[in-house]
Amino acid sequence: MSCKHFGRCGGCTYLDIPYEEELTIKKGHLDEALGEYARYLGILHPAPHPEAYRNKMELAFGDEGKDVCLALGMRKKRSMYEVATPTNCILICQDFKKLITHVLKFFRATDEKFFHRKLHTGTLRHLTLRRGEFTGEILLMLSTTSTLQTSLTPLVTSLLALPLEGKIVGILHAKNDGVADAVKNENITLLHGRDYYNEKICGLSFKVSMFSFFQTNSRGAEVLYDVVRKFAGALPKSAASEARALSRPHELFEKSSAKTDIGLDLYCGTGTIAQIVSPSFKKVIGVEIIEDAILAARENAELNNIQNCEFHACDVAEILNSTEGADVIIVDPPRNGLHPKALEKLAALPAERLIYVACKPKSFARDLPTLLAAGYTLQKIEAVDMFPRTPHVEAVALLRRVDT
Predict the structure, then answer these.
(1) Dist. CA 398–CA 361, nearest whole Å
(2) Domain 19-50+217-401: homologous superfamily in CATH
(3) Whole-structure pTM over 0.85, yes or no?
(4) How far apart are CA 52 and CA 1, in angstroms?
(5) Would you call 359 a catalytic residue per the annotation?
(6) Choosing from 12, 202, 268, 359, which is the catalytic residue?
(7) Which residue of 10, 262, 316, 391 could cross-link 326, Cys pair, CB 3.0 to 4.6 Å?
(8) CATH of 56-209, one of 1.25.40.890, 2.70.70.10, 2.40.400.10, 2.40.50.1070
(9) Tens digits of per-residue pLDDT, 222-252?
């Protein structure tokens, strides 16, 4: 599929080659990032749907260069103000395209201008869209300065009247007078509906707010979490269940009487992984420093009637200082990997298994020698193409202690 913005907007890298070739290139990049540990790399799971998979888009108002008309889209490479309007973007669904086109048309009929990042003039800043892939629920937020003159009531009414495959469940307005080019979680007014949408992953329900972390590719997330719970010990009931690897619901997994005692989910976010692996444990403890995420994790666990998960809002290093350990530790750190102090404390815990979810495999390869020196052995690595048409791949590694 052709795109007039390919190579300029920065959204796609491999749009001009077949998807199978893209996977081959990514396998090579993984081998390079993992270095001597690449021999443990097994499956590179392809994306269930290589197109229209993004459930979140953060778009900026600007112009398109020669045409000074107002534009709305992805910022172009090496440009402060030019944006690429994603009218035929393969990464987003048709509903997102309709919403972007409608919002842009609405403001082109007004006197509002985009916020100029150098002159600090104009009012229109960003449009953020989020969508439940499996529920069709859509959340929309417009970010402007407080000097916006146009009434948003007609915009809300016309958005709700659009013929969409999904359904708008919430429209928000954020006022931001700062100079930084960022979408801020402050001064937000609810214009319609509610401030969250619902999504279903691996048979569980999750409430996702505008600023909650949630995997950008819902279908890909199911594949990723399937690998995690396989490594954690949540095995399917039968070979027939194994054949449904891309759509296995939570209920298909054994709630064995021989459960592992304690699971520890570090950097747990809103507790998605902790809840998905919970059938394999007597108790799962989730740790995340962002308090709002922990509140959401507790709410989602209650929503799913999961009673063996507990969540704590604190620094990972703090919990590693106070805990006596866990049988299985799952760690899903930021892109830069584990902080050296947290890595040192983690390596000292006598866990039977350690599952490392790496959104940047090179960071995992950097952290791995410390874990190996502490007595772990690397068993296997599986990767998931979570972001088709981009260079990013996530990897999941299983480590075991030599003495267990």
Answers:
(1) 13
(2) Vaccinia Virus protein VP39 (3.40.50.150)
(3) yes
(4) 12
(5) yes
(6) 359
(7) 262
(8) 2.40.50.1070
(9) 999 999 999 998 544 333 334 333 343 333 2
